Amino acid sequence: MKSRGVLLLALALLTGCPGDLPPEECFLTGAAEPSTLIIAEGEAASVLVPATSPQVCDTPEDAHTPESVTVEVHGPDNLPVPATAELTAGTWFATVRFTPTSTGRHHVIVAFAPVGSLRQFDVHVAQDERSRPPAASLTARPSCLFVDRTRGGTWLCDSLALREPGDPLQFVGRDNQPATAVAGDVVWAMTDTEVRRYVDPGTGPLVLTGTAPFPPGSYDTDRTPHSRLATEDEYLVADATTLHRYVFREGEGVLAFSNTPWSTLATPQLTFGADSTRVILLRGGDTVWLVSSAHDSVTFTPRTKACPFQVDAQGFYRPSTTRACQVLIGDPVGHGEGVVWTRSVVQTSTGFSPVLHRHEVSTAHGIEEAGALSLDSSIASFVQELRPGPSHPLLGSSSGAGPIATPRWNAERTALVLALLPDPGHANHITRISDHFTWTVSRSGEPGVRVHPWTSSP
């Protein structure tokens, strides 16, 4: 059996404790592990649940405490899950135990008698990927905002390439603003003055196959890409105002093919992500979608807009004449291959609840919502950098303790489920995730980036 997870519901009714009592006496929990409402599938859970009491800390000794307790646990399919509840003698607390056998939201109902009434809460059950073995440990760098690998086996950490840990390092682009993209065995990169295209020959360093200088005046002042897309023969870069296209042709090398202003479609622009991103690029067949955020011209409220672009006869990306722009629910919080994630907030009977939305690009229907996941206030969604490359949402306990999870598309159930990410076992690290890899870096700046393989759907 896997190790037991201990959960503590630190509810608002417990906030009126006298200042002369230490927190552990006030809560009377005895819980040894951090509080969290995300647990692993198949893991025995133990939840400490308080009955409703007007004065938890100052309750007189002769006051009536609960004499019995019952519990019901319902899985995501609304079927009952075996569970037990046990009162802690002389207190207002009961311990609920159950072992979930499926992923998804589990609803728990605890009834105290003759006092205490009902308590209801949800537990998110996630696929357990914490023991997934690492694919590599990139010891040459203290951190990587971007990690990918060519088909031939060369690792890319930002603008640094190496075939195996310990091999000679090869810088393919500028290091301060990673703009690397991998497509099969082709690697695209940017320096301060040009775009470069490399090919992985299967052994040794990457081979430079072409370069193209930046056209004069074609980039914003810092030339920082906000998003990029790549195939083996095309490299698209979007900055704060313009979509740039580079094409590789045999015998001609890399050509700076066209630059298309896009920002007029979403003015005034709003930024999103931890690095003030203005646009995300997505590909669906022969259409490239530019996802941005702006104030609605009528309501002046923020809205996310996805506009389609297609290549015209002259090789320029132009706004599509066959598809219209689409409005997406929520603010952008992540993206991947043909997917953009947004986050909205909905009002419920108990307050406001955040919701994650997964939007998928379809060649037939444009961008459609393909799954939504409602979160409790106890689940925090971490704001991440979006410019370095694909980045999927990261979730954790709002207390800052416990495991890190990510939403994952389950095609068999046609639903979003949570998955617990590989964890180095200590708090002094940062987790990042893309389409193909998840990796952890040290907060203290010590060299060593541990990379684990990942798939966005099981």
Describe what you observe in this structure.
1% of the residues lie in helices and 48% in strands. With 458 residues, it is mostly beta strands. The strands form 9 sheets. Strands 2, 4, 5, 8, 9, 35 and 36 form a 7-stranded mixed sheet that branches. Strands 23, 24, 25, 26, 27 and 28 form a 6-stranded antiparallel sheet that branches.
List the helices and strands and how they pair.
Blueprint: E1 5-8, H1 23-27, E2 38-40, E3 45-50, E4 68-74, E5 80-81, E6 83-87, E7 93-98, E8 104-113, E9 118-128, E10 136-138, E11 147-149, E12 155-157, E13 160-162, E14 170-171, E15 181-183, E16 186-190, E17 194-199, E18 207-213, E19 227-230, E20 234-238, E21 242-249, E22 253-261, E23 269-270, E24 280-284, E25 287-295, E26 302-311, E27 317-319, E28 326-328, E29 331-336, E30 339-348, E31 351-362, E32 366-374, E33 379-381, E34 395-397, E35 405-410, E36 415-420, E37 429-433, E38 437-442, E39 449-453
Parallel strand pairs: 1-3, 2-9, 9-36
Antiparallel strand pairs: 3-7, 4-5, 4-8, 6-7, 8-9, 10-39, 11-12, 12-13, 13-14, 15-16, 16-17, 17-18, 19-20, 20-21, 21-22, 23-25, 24-25, 25-26, 26-27, 26-28, 29-30, 30-31, 31-32, 33-34, 35-36, 37-38, 38-39
What best-fitting shape do the alpha-carbon axes yield? globular
Structural class: mainly beta
Residue stretches low in confidence (pLDDT < 50, at least 5 long) are: 1-35
Helix content: under 10%
DSSP strand count: 39
The pLDDT mean sits at 83
Count of runs of 4 or more consecutive helical residues: 1
* Beginning-to-end CA distance, first to last residue: 23 Å
